[in-house]
Amino acid sequence: MLSPQEATDRAADLIARARNAGADAADAVYSASASEGIQVRLGKLEDVERSEGEHMGLRVFIGQRSASIGSSDLTPAALDELAERAVAMARAAPEDPFAGLAPAELLTHAPFADFDLYDPVDPGAEALRAAAAEAEDAALAIPGVTNSEGASASAGVSVFALATSHGFAGGYRGSSHSINASVLAGEGADKQRDSNWRHTRHRADLPSPAEIGALAGTRAVARLRPGKLRSGPMPVVFDPRVSGGIMGHLISAMSGSAIARRSSFLLDKRDTQLFDPSIRLVENPHNPRGTRSRPFDGEGLATSPRNLVEDGRVTGWLMDSASARQLGQAPSGHAARGGGGAPGVSVGNVHLEPGDVSVADLIADIAEGVLVTDLIGQGVNGVTGDYSRGAAGLRIVEGQIAGPVAEFTVAGNLLAMFARMRPANDLEWHRAINVPTLRIDGMTVAGD
Predict the structure, then answer these.
(1) Which residues share a beta bridge with 371?
(2) Prediction pTM value
């Protein structure tokens, strides 16, 4: 794997090859990763996985025509062929009036801030196996847990670099560490499964494997002998394990490309009061050791902290350069690049600010409702905002948790859900989108 500087130089070299092949402009990305993972089940080693890979993506422009191509063969001859093929593809492509690199005057430049994304510690296979075994042992020790689907521990490093033909060049390195445990509780047809996982940049930031495993076991036992819910409108409370998905639907609808295509339920809603004025959704791609932190976006623009929702209103769209041109605005620094193709958009380290009440107080006045801990299916319409998901969780009766329930559906419309949303004060800080427990009144539940 190349160093960030070597990766940046390799991307710049590919740009030069593209220009020599006839491209008017180009950008190139280099991405590489290496990881090692160990899985155990019932105390025995079940799987050892080691993966390494490098990839380069090239996007070229001939006037308003563009093409993208990628390769994992990084030999000089292969990169020459890659550049020539990309230019030939671009010459045959239709014109796109919005195609082009990011505005040169908006590019950021080195030196880039260091957000402590790289942990040089390599735990090694034995330490990973020990961590996975400890997590599984802790889960199996919970009374009521009867079997294991396995526990795993992994560690990896990655490098990303971007270069453009109009003056940007930069790269950075990151690391990842994770532990996961999944177990079964109960016997026969009454078995229930649940899991727990954590992912961090630095190994020292992981909770203990025993803590991760014990929570997996506790969650599985809590799901035993689920009952049924009646059908009808009632308050629905979303656990932090699933509440981030609701904000994820909002973020998807804020994509500039969705707005430009008029395929977002937020169309014409930028200045509308969507949430209670107390609601604030914050993005900070500069969080030290953040799993979504980055110094620049996929087009070479600076990333920056911002409030995506302020005073209950969306503050703007998430735009790469193409969608910004379509909308007549400036790109927002949210461009994201994969191994090939045009940029998409992504956000970094998002959290919904917590409310001022505990979960107990949030549900205290609910005569009949449900706390959702698991969502199933993908029943969300990004154009209309209609929301319908299969679910499992815990019944709420007279303000108290009253046992597990399963095989029901929760439904509503995201705009109406946003307007009724009330957060608790139990914000957790280890997911890509961190959201506390949410209460949404008036949702429709389809049970028995």
Answers:
(1) 237, 394
(2) 0.94
What b/e sequence results for 347-385 when a residue is b if at least 16 CB atoms lie within 10 Å of its CB, and e otherwise? Answer: bbbbbbbbbebebeebbeebeebbbbbbbeeeebebeeb
Residues 44-64: pLDDT tens digits?
A: 999 999 999 999 999 999 999
**Residues of the chain under the 50 pLDDT cut:** none
End-to-end CA distance of the chain, in Å? 56
pLDDT of residue 189: 85
Given a contact cutoff of 8 angstroms between Cβ atoms, the answer to whether 17 and 74 are in contact is no
- For residue range 268-279, list pLDDT tens digits in order: 998 899 999 999
Query: Tokens 């997911």 — which residue?
Result: 431
**Predicted pLDDT of residue 442:** 95
Q: Where are the domains of the chain?
A: 4-221, 226-448
Q: How far apart are CA 440 and CA 431, in angstroms?
A: 21
Please give the structure tokens belonging to residue 227: 């009952």
Number of alpha carbons in the 13 Å side-chain half-sphere of residue 40: 22
pLDDT of 4 reads 97
Report the candidate in 45, 441, 82 with the shortest Cα–Cα distance to residue 236: 441
DSSP per residue, 368-421: EEEEEEEEES--B-TTT-EEEEEEEEEEEETTEEEEEEEEEEEEEEHHHHHHHE
Q: Give the β-pairing of 145-164 and 169-185.
A: antiparallel
Radius of gyration for the chain, computed over Cα atoms and rounded to the nearest angstrom: 24
- Would you say domain 4-221 falls under CATH 3.40.50.11890? no
C-alpha dihedral (272, 278, 284, 290), degrees to nearest 10: -130
At residue 287, the 3 state secondary structure works out as: coil
Picking from 378, 381, 386, the residue whose alpha carbon sits closest to that of residue 443 is 386
Amino acid at 291: T
